[in-house]
Design brief:
The chain has 325 residues and is an alpha/beta fold. It has two domains: 173 residues, Rossmann fold; 123 residues, Rossmann fold, CATH 3.40.50.1220. It contains nine helices and 14 strands. The strands form two sheets. It has a nine-stranded mixed sheet, sandwiched between helices. Helix 4 crosses helix 5 and helix 6 runs parallel beside helix 9. The longest helix has 17 residues. The radius of gyration is 21 Å and the shape is elongated.
Length: 325
Amino acid sequence: MGALWVIGEPNADGSLARISAEVATLARSVAAASGLSAAGIVVAADPAGPAGELAAYLPRVLAVTDPDAAGNAWAVVAAERAAAIIGEDPHALVILGAGQDGRDVAGSLSALTSLGILVNATAVDWLDGRPTVEMSAFGGKFVTTSTFTGGGGIVTVQPNTVVAEAATKPGSVETAAPGAEPTLPHVAVLDNVVEAGAAAPIEEARIIVSGGRGVGGPAGFAMVQELATELGGAVGASRAAVDSGWIPYAQQIGQTGKIVKPELYVALGISGAIQHKVGMQTARTIVAVNRDPDAPIAEFADLVVVGDLFEVVPALLLALRARAG
């Protein structure tokens, strides 16, 4: 029987990425069902911070210090250092987030360890002595269940699949040697470009107000922003709105955008096609405003307001402001 590994992703500010806390929570449940020992690996120029945070979720975390992780693409460095720890165990199970860095790590790690990959998991369980991985296919129309023929493998998990919950008792952090000299070519980071005026990540928002084709244009998104501000939430969008150039891609929710799990999701002028549903269907409460009572979103929304959003939203804003006053 192999080991269960979680590869923690450090943020640029030295904190632990939220998706790594989610994955670690999931890994604990898989470890409890399988009897595998769960441990984390954090590779960074200064891993102390993110390794300490990951230890709140796992019983044991290995911190690997590698100065090359600072000036180069992190995924390549992390994959090689993690591969040195995991070794050639065909029964090892590695779980990590399905973000940009996580996907890059998974690909390199697979090449280094010969472990297979199952991607964009929405659930990971343990049945009949091996992991079973649920994944959505064809834009969320179908759910598949797969496993590894060799017993072990690499799984990338979609963001917001689970709610991060710390363990009842924090784990320990151990220093691990980086291993042999790297063999993979490093990719130097020449410049970092931060989007001007970017909002807080919508993946972390408790309330999201999203606009779709029915918003009509950039001016309509001013109203979306106004409602989001009044509710203390973030602004999201459907692909149609992003493709039209009304709002940046960073706010897109759906199969080709962000996966979100807010407490409240307000959809304004969004039809609710399956590609968008994939990105927000796990919201606790979904409220839709649409002129079409037969729009697909009416099938899964908790509350549907049939009407013109340019009449409904101003009335809602008045009610909210009157209540606040």
